[in-house]
Specification:
Elements (H helix, E strand, L loop, with lengths): L1 H36 L7 E6 L4 E9 L4 E4 L10 E4 L4 E5 L5 E5 L4 E4 L2 H10 L7 E5 L6 H17 L12 H31 L3 H15 L2 H24 L14 H25 L3 H9 L4 H12 L1 H16 L5 H4 L26 H10 L4 H38 L5
Antiparallel strand pairs: 1-2, 1-5, 2-3, 3-4, 6-7, 6-8
Helix pairs in contact: 1-13, 4-7, 4-10, 5-7, 6-7, 7-10, 8-9, 10-13, 12-13
């Protein structure tokens, strides 16, 4: 009886730990979503009258015990018009319904009381009407209008291009770069990982043990070392040779001899290879031995048994390895900083010109955008929320790809159980 109680307690403890892990993941995703996308919600514009007779229009972006910070009209540059107002300097605060908030293509924001003031501010900022991407009276908006404006801003963030400062605008190049990198990494890593797992499953001996030890060592290497390996092996090694063989007329300007999408994908393929090998090898080892022995007894060779029986049955493990590879590759930013990721690359790796896909192109990545916005942004009050938004989008992509792979894996696993002996 005590043994049964201990087993029940162990199961309950493991279930509670799993529930805590799921709760932490959900809470983290929710916190990132709120922190990242809250700035897209329309903010009211306040009119502050000061004791010296001045009147200030702007958005309240921070509130402290002894002061509040307003973002006023950015005439000269983005992030150059913050004002810190102390309570003793404020006479009154109002929310005029007719005030206009204008956003320019370069991310600057202007605030005016009427159309005449707006025209004067545009002229002072050196902008014209075509530079205006949004003109709205936020104080006069109802809840439904605010929701529609919020959706439009989020859509512009996801589907738009960044500005030159990369602290405003959209993240479409980074989104496309991340997805392309993950898919290209999968194309490189999955076949090699599956083939290596098949070899280790079938072979025994000193060579197989040495290969398995090498894979274990690769799994324990810091991610930045893969960046150094990719820089030396792919960029300066293989890339330089490719340029000498096929692009000699363009030298000394490198084509494949500099960081790019292909070498970044190859570096991440090496990074995720141990995860794929271990997952697939465990899947092959978990297939009932009776199926393998029955296939051999019916006259099939080892190769035929592997390709036509064991490998299809191991598809759940292959998809599990794919999901784990995506999770590790998407969060590994340090290697990419050495092999091709850049702060700003508005051009996508796809275009309408032959060969339509350019693997040597430099690219943007959501993970690097998080680092750049949080650590290197000239405007922290914009950069930190942008980092949260990029992180939330990256988490959403990883969760979507992982859940798709896990759902498909569970369906294949249900079919596999039907083949198991009773």
């Amino acid at each position: 009886m005590s043994r049964a109680r201990n087993e029940s307690a162990g199961v309950a403890l493991l279930g509670g730990a799993a529930a805590c892990c799921v709760g932490v993941v959900v809470a983290l995703a929710a916190w990132l979503a709120v922190a990242g996308f809250a700035p897209f919600w329309p903010t009211s514009v306040v009119e502050v009258s000061l004791r010296d007779g001045a009147v200030v229009l702007g958005e309240r972006v921070a509130q402290f015990d002894d002061a509040q910070v307003l973002r006023t009209s950015e005439i000269e540059r983005i992030g150059g018009a913050y004002r810190r107002l102390r309570p003793d300097d404020i006479v009154s605060t109002a929310l005029p319904r007719d005030v206009l908030a204008i956003e320019l293509a370069d991310g600057r924001r202007l605030f005016a009381r009427d159309a005449g003031d707006a025209a004067a501010l545009l002229a002072a900022a050196g902008a014209i009407e075509s530079d205006v991407v949004e003109r709205v009276a936020p104080n006069a908006l109802g809840f439904g209008s605010r929701c529609m404006l919020f959706v439009k801003r989020v859509a512009r963030f996801v589907a738009g291009a960044p500005d030159t400062s990369n602290i405003s605008g959209g993240v479409l190049p980074a989104l496309i770069g991340t997805l392309t990198l993950v898919l290209l990494m999968s194309v490189l890593a999955m076949p090699l990982g599956v083939a290596t797992a098949m070899f280790l499953h079938q072979r025994r001996g000193a060579y197989a043990r040495a290969l398995r030890s090498a894979i274990d060592m690769l799994a324990g290497m810091p991610a930045i070392l893969y960046g150094v390996l990719g820089l030396g092996l792919f960029v300066h090694g293989l890339g330089a040779r490719v340029d000498a063989w096929f692009f000699a007329d363009r030298l000394p300007v490198p084509t494949f001899g500099s960081g790019g999408l292909l070498w970044a994908a190859a570096t991440l393929a090496l990074l995720t290879l141990p995860v794929v090998v271990v997952s697939v090898e465990r899947g092959l080892a978990g297939i009932p031995a009776s199926l393998r022995e029955g296939s051999l007894a019916l006259g099939a060779t080892r190769e035929e048994t592997m390709w036509r029986l064991l490998l299809p049955l191991a598809r759940p493990a292959i998809l599990g390895g794919f999901a784990l590879a995506i999770a590790r590759a998407a969060g590994s930013v340090a290697p990419l900083m050495l092999v091709g990721v850049v702060k700003l690359a508005p051009a996508l790796p796809f275009d309408a010109h032959f060969p339509y896909f350019h693997p040597s192109a430099q690219f943007m990545h959501l993970g690097f955008s998080v680092y750049d916005a949080s650590m290197a942004s000239p405007d922290a009050l914009r950069g930190v929320p942008r980092a949260y938004a990029c992180a939330a989008l990256l988490v959403l992509i990883v969760l979507t790809l992982n859940l798709s792979a896990l759902v498909l894996r569970n369906r294949l696993r249900a079919r596999q159980r039907m083949l198991e002996p009773a």
